[in-house]
């Protein structure tokens, strides 16, 4: 039966429709992660061994990146798990993907604040930029960062991390400005003290990993060409998520606080089930509005949850406003809005000043 639009709590009504879908299946998580990561690493070996610029090498590069992107997306699931849940899954994910790709899951712990109703869509939100309410130049600035993402991580874990342990002032800067996985370059918030021991462990592992690579380059075991091949693979993998993020939200807020209904309407579900949707939105990312309604909902339940909500919610539900047919439709909407925004009315000024409008 559809949930009436006038019910006291539409959130509770929506939850009632999917109340039986919140249990995670550890087997689904483990099988998906192990198969995806095994295939990604096997294709990486093929990528390095195949004849240069051959069809085999190009295919191995693309498919390996897509699979690394898929298994890397589990970082989003991990940060939404209770700290005591699936502990060995989190550790294994770090060893298979987090450390080699220089993105240990603890640096993404700030993501839970993206769901804080007092911070979402404001300059205090590390994962929100008002691209649709700012001139096109801001979207272009965002896009050109993609090839530089591995460089940022190499500097963070290979240089700044170890040096900061020798200098208290630098350490505070690193913990405040360079220890959170964000898309908002103006984000500034100190890393929680309670998680510093965990951060130090993964920093050490990342540095040791980079030291081995550096030694290989120094002694000739790893050629400069092979290093660039590895950098390119990582850049393409991270770039997939970077560009996918353009269709996660409408990014039209001006910095003011948003109601729950506004937050859901600002988020996007990609409902067209094409091959591109499957590749660009793995592990439940296509249902981003659904995720913002129910952050604890596991990815393998989202398809069923979306179908139930579409069948049971009223026609005026903000959830329906969040649906888009494709990635391109969502990005085109953002692009058109940005193209109509003048520098004088740019919402990005609130972000660069680090203040939210009340």
Question: What this model shows, in words?
Answer:
The structure is a single chain. The N terminus is likely disordered. This protein has a domain of 101 residues. The chain is mostly helical and 358 residues long. The chain starts with 9 loop residues before the first helix and ends in a 5-residue tail after the last helix.
Low-confidence stretches: 1-9
Taken in chain order, the helices and strands follow as HHHHHHHHHHHEHHHHEHH
- Judged by helices, strands and strand pairing, the structural class is mainly alpha
Percent in helix? 55-70%
Strand order of the largest sheet: 1-2
> Strand-residue fraction?
under 5%
What is the approximate shape? globular
What radius of gyration results from the CA coordinates?
Answer: 21 Å
Helix count from the secondary structure assignment: 17
Average pLDDT metric: 94
Distance between the termini: 39 Å
Query: What summary fits the major beta sheet?
Result: 2 strands, parallel
How many E strands? 2
Task: Name some characteristics of this structure.
56% helix, disordered N terminus
Question: What is the strand and helix layout of this fold?
Answer:
Layout: H1 10-17, H2 26-49, H3 55-72, H4 74-79, H5 87-98, H6 136-143, H7 149-164, H8 168-177, H9 196-218, H10 224-244, H11 260-266, E1 269-270, H12 275-280, H13 288-293, H14 302-312, H15 318-321, E2 323-324, H16 327-339, H17 348-353
Helix pairs in contact: 2-3, 2-5, 3-10, 7-8, 7-9
Structure, briefly:
By secondary structure, the chain is mainly alpha-helical. The protein contains 17 helices and 2 strands.
């Amino acid at each position: 039966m559809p949930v009436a639009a006038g019910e006291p709590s539409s959130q509770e009504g929506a939850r009632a429709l999917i109340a039986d879908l919140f249990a995670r299946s550890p087997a689904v998580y483990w099988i998906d992660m192990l198969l995806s990561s095994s295939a990604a690493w096997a294709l990486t070996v093929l990528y390095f061994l195949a004849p240069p610029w051959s069809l085999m090498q190009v295919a191995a590069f693309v498919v390996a990146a897509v699979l690394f992107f898929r298994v890397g997306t589990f970082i989003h699931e991990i940060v939404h798990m209770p700290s005591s849940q699936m502990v060995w899954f989190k550790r294994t994910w770090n060893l298979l993907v987090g450390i080699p790709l220089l993105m240990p899951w603890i640096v993404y712990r700030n993501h839970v604040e993206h769901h804080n109703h007092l911070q979402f869509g404001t300059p205090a939100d590390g994962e929100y930029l008002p691209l649709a309410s700012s001139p096109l130049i801001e979207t272009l600035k965002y896009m050109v960062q993609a090839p530089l993402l591995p460089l940022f991580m190499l500097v963070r874990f290979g240089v700044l991390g170890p040096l900061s342990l020798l200098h208290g002032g630098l350490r505070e800067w690193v913990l405040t400005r360079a220890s959170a996985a964000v898309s908002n370059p103006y984000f500034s918030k100190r890393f929680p003290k309670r998680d510093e021991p965990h951060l130090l462990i993964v920093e050490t592992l990342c540095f040791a990993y980079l030291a081995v690579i550096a030694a290989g380059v120094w002694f000739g075991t790893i050629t400069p060409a092979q290093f660039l091949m590895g950098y390119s693979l990582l850049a393409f993998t991270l770039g997939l998520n970077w560009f996918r993020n353009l269709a996660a939200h409408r990014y039209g807020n001006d910095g003011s606080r948003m109601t729950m209904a506004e937050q859901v309407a600002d988020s996007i579900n990609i409902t067209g089930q094409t091959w591109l949707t499957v590749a660009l939105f793995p592990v439940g990312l296509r249902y981003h509005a659904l995720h913002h309604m129910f952050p604890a909902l596991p990815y393998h339940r989202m398809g069923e949850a979306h179908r139930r909500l579409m069948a049971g919610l009223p026609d005026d539900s903000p959830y329906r406003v969040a649906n888009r047919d494709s990635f391109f439709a969502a990005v085109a909407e953002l692009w058109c809005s940005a193209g109509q925004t003048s520098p004088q009315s740019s919402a990005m000024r609130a972000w660069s000043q680090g203040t939210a409008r009340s």
